[in-house]
Backbone:
């Protein structure tokens, strides 16, 4: 199974919104995210489900992905908020509904969390070494072993600069 | 400083050439490698130098990069051959001629060596978890610290599928 970790697009500045959870994508952020989503769709990606952080800039990114026909289904996943615990996603994954080999799913969230999750899945250890730009993507292939922590492969790390 | 680790393009089958060092790129391999090189050039990459494995499929890839105006200079670097020791490249790097922050260089070689070198630079440990396709690229930002092993950042892992 392939998991794509997607960082939300360019959002309004922090000083413009007292509530960080409500910071929206900017117009440019929406446009660039849509371009990325269309490009991924052209390449042939299709996600059985998109799980998104509850924060506005992430859920807007998820909606843009749905708009580009990348996935029929979006669900809010609280552990994708900043500081969330990957174990909640592992538990979700181990329930088995989406862990067939043919499936792809997308997780939309934030940095440094997504880079840290990727490091945990691939190396078993957070080192903070993965640079993930806004509207960028990490592609991870989960092993057939039960627990994906430290057993997965990294096959993609890209961003709008390299995709568009 | 940014280092791009580039895997050679699609080469002739092993059973067609008794001497693995002489296996050339196929016509399709040359064409796809040239497309990748042109795309990298359009994105704005420029390498101060390209170091290449002495094997034919790698040196042909390096020549295609030069043909696409990605670099004025190619040098054969024996440690980029399969099984080569990264320490030889670290020694070369620490001589300081190309380790300015503004520089980009490319290393052209083979799998699993390039993935292993990337893991050493980023995590300090070989785990064999990086999937690098033919004519694919890994982008690594070296830290300002003297020794790049285990101190570098990963910002790119891509392949023709995602670039073209």
Residues:
């Amino acid at each position: 199974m392939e998991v794509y970790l997607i960082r939300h697009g360019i959002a309004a500045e922090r000083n413009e919104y007292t509530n960080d959870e409500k910071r929206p994508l900017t117009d440019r952020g929406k446009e660039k995210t849509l371009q990325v989503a269309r490009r991924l769709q052209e390449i042939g990606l299709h996600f059985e489900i998109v799980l998104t952080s509850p924060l506005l800039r992430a859920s807007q990114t998820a909606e843009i992905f749905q708009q580009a026909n990348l996935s029929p289904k979006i669900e809010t996943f609280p552990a994708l908020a900043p500081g969330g615990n990957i174990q909640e996603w592992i538990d979700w994954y181990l329930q088995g509904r989406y862990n067939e080999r043919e499936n792809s799913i997308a997780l939309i969230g934030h940095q440094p969390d997504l880079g840290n999750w990727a490091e945990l899945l691939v190396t078993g250890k957070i080192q903070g070494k993965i640079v993930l730009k806004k509207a960028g993507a990490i592609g991870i292939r989960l092993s057939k072993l039960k627990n994906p922590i430290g057993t997965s492969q990294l096959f993609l790390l890209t961003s709008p600069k390299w995709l568009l």
